[in-house]
Amino acid sequence: MAFVLSLLMALVLVSYSPGGSLGCDLSQNHVLVGRQNLKLLGQMRRLSPRFCLQERKDFAFPQEMVKGGQLHEAQAFSVLHEMLQQSFNLFHTEHSSAAWDTTLLEQLRTGLHQQLDDLDACLGQVTGEEDSALGRTGPTLAVKRYFQGIHVYLKEKEYSDCAWEIIRVEIMRSLSSSTSLQERLRMMDGDLNSP
């Protein structure tokens, strides 16, 4: 889990550094939607996580990919976009529809889609011609492999209620780290730019 925090810290540092180095300003609404997505994930809880302790797994996001926060701007946006896209895909399957309250699930899907739309606009500005190569290399590929491991885990556990609970908590942790860091750094950036 420490790696996910490191990855998200690197993403946010690049995204919200003074001067808007990415050339794209994600709106405050993007942060608010992220908070709402976390709230929805919390409300989706159907089992006590303690009941599922025997099912826990370390999904091992590859730490070496962002050691020292060495992501370029385009990579940071690409990785953040990939994390949201993969989360959206995960919760947009037939199996997830069977596992969760449909109203909460649809609200979560809508929120993730809204965040993806925000990032799509920025991703195009930042990546330009690099876009096609970013999805097949380095940190973005690591995110894809991480989510592939999550999909394999769910399949191995036959999409059990406990398996979904473990995944819900895993996704909630990574999105929580991202949202809280984005908010904190956004406030720091505002303080630095005030008269």
From TrEMBL:
Keyword Endoplasmic reticulum: no
Coiled coil spans: none
Top-level taxonomic group: Eukaryota
UniProt main location, coarse: secreted
Subcellular location: Secreted
Keyword vocabulary terms for this entry: Antiviral defense, Cytokine, Disulfide bond, Secreted, Signal
Transferase is among the record's keywords: no
A Pfam family reported for this protein in Swiss-Prot or TrEMBL: Interferon
Signal peptide: 1-23
Entry similarity comment: Belongs to the alpha/beta interferon family.
Name the record gives this protein: Interferon omega-1-like
Source organism (scientific name): Bos indicus (Zebu)
Gene name, Swiss-Prot/TrEMBL: LOC139184516
